[in-house]
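User: Good morning. I'm curious how magnesium ion would be positioned relative to this chain. Could you predict the structure with it bound?
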Amino acid sequence: MNIVLQCCSLFIVGVLIIMFLREKKLDLVDRRLFTHAVFTCFVCLIFDIISVIAINRTVYGSFSPVATVIICKIYIMLLTAQGYLSYIYVSTGLLTVEGVNRSKFRIIFRWVFAIGEILILVLPIYYTCDDDAVYSYGASTAVAYRICAVFLLASVIISLTCKKRMSRRKYIALLTWQSTWLLAAVIQFLNPELLLVGFASAFGMVILYIQLENPSAYIDAYTGLFTNEALAVYIRDKYKYNMPFSAFTARIIYLTSDIDFDMEQNAVLRIAGALTELGSEPAFRIDDKTFCVVYDDKERMNERMLFIKNRKDSVTGVPADAAYILIPDSSIFSSSEEFFKYLHYHENDTQEITIADEESVRQIRERSYVSQMITDALADDRVEVFYQPFYNVKEKKFTAAEALVRIKDTDGRIVPPAEFIPMAEENGQIIQLGMRIFEKVCRFLATGEGQKYGLEYVEVNVSAAQFDYDNPAKFVMEYIKKYNLNPGWINLEITETVQLGSKKSIIMNVDKLTKEGVTFSLDDFGTGRSNLDYFVNMPVQNIKFDRSFTQGYFQNEKVKYVLKGMADMMHEMNMMIVSEGIETKEQLDAMIDMGIEYIQGFYFSKPIPESDFIEYLKSNNG
Ligand code: C2E
Ligand code: MG
Ligand code: MG
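Assistant: Good morning! Here's the predicted structure, ligand included:
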């Protein structure tokens, strides 16, 4: 009897089931479907073996032929079910969008399966047994093989066409599993005595288990909690299959700085223990300080969160507080991406409890809208640079300008920088944006059009955040060289930053560029963002009096004296002053009286596009 292969397969699948059942698992839809497939495979193998034994016994006269027919039919019906479940496993994961399986063939396949099983039941089946082979054949068996082939081919086609919707790992695992099955089925169809299908399906289950469904891949070996990666998969699953949930995250804030590595790891272990004791709901370790527990029920989540909150000190073993983020109802977010964006955005919150409500979610949406707008504007070249001329009091003409960025939205609206610069500074997009703006200014200067009409230099804003993420000196010099510019045509506007780290980086960059001939201005003077200490330590050539400061001159006597005193002091230090925000003749005259060198403001011009700016210089500078 040729049952050695089947016995081996049964053993393999049996071991796999034991391992699978023993592991702590996340309740994922794919995993549930895999469980069905594995159990069907196991039962199918048992019937495979029983059918071979029954045929053998019947042929040699010691077993009921009717019972053998029934056993053979159960076996091939299970085989067909296995084919169907494999198809369901592949198609559910890949074709479900927003909780709905988008496959047009879903119902057809269900009917094919049901009718197939009925046909297998009613059509005749025969069996044979000779020296080296035992197998069944006939219309019933032929139907089973054909239907299995259809399910398998459908799974292969879905896998191939949905390649982009899965990881490379999943793609390779699915194709290996399917091609093994397909190959075995073809061989067995052509040579019914070679009973390979059972072995191939067992082999396939092992591949799927190792590559995709191994529960321990999602377990953090140190704490036994689920990993951060598991959280991503779990939450994605919840949104994909429309399964509402509640969750809370807890971030530990140690109240003492005397925490060494061992103490922290011990605290992590204790927290893991406390979370596990909370109940059977899955708990995740996001990082060493942050943990998450997901519930099906909001009430239970609140109650468990309060329970752990009230015993926080004893949990970590060291003086500590915790900051909680509560997500009472997952449907407040439209997707798992939004869920994680929310966590990411609030990851450093220090308030005790942050609740995901409509308002906080609206902020997240607005932020991601802005961030997307910047990305798209960079990709579609809709980042524009406007120029606002500076009136040079001594020469009585416009010899400089400030470059000010705008985004031209898809509907043609000009988006002012206040709507996107703060966001870009926060998330690092300022690097790309800053480089693009700078390159556009360089390109303009390289045409020489402005210089032809008296333009001496252009001021470009550089955010303090650019120094946090990057070394702006590098790209500034690269572009200056690329466009073959005189470094003196560039003046960079910087503001003070509170962060000491970036201050060091600013000084380093400023020194480097100053040596190359680039000049600097201190922007926003008078707003509190720039103070004396800053320009004393910085080699800046220009000071820019902020609009609020120059306007204060006309509203408050004291500001007038401060401003005058400042102007005198700066002049003594050989610095030049640009007065921003001058809108009226009265303001202009006052600034001129004070000896201010450059005037910038709507009195002369708003920031205007490059071509208008050239026209402006042409008509005003003669
Ligand atoms: P800022 O560097 O202080 O720029 C001066 C702002 O004052 C500009 O606003 C300008 O249009 C406005 N302004 C000039 N004269 C007048 C006036 O007479 N009346 C009034 N009401 N406003 C006047 P804008 O272009 O909206 O820029 C706002 C801020 O956005 C800038 O302040 C700067 O901090 C930032 N920004 C603009 N462009 C860039 C850029 O390319 N890179 C970076 N990092 N920041 C930029
Ligand atoms: Mg500026
Ligand atoms: Mg300014």
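Residues 402, 461, 493, 523 surround magnesium ion (ligand 2) (CB under 6 Å). The radius of gyration is 36 Å.
Let me know if you'd like a different ligand tried.
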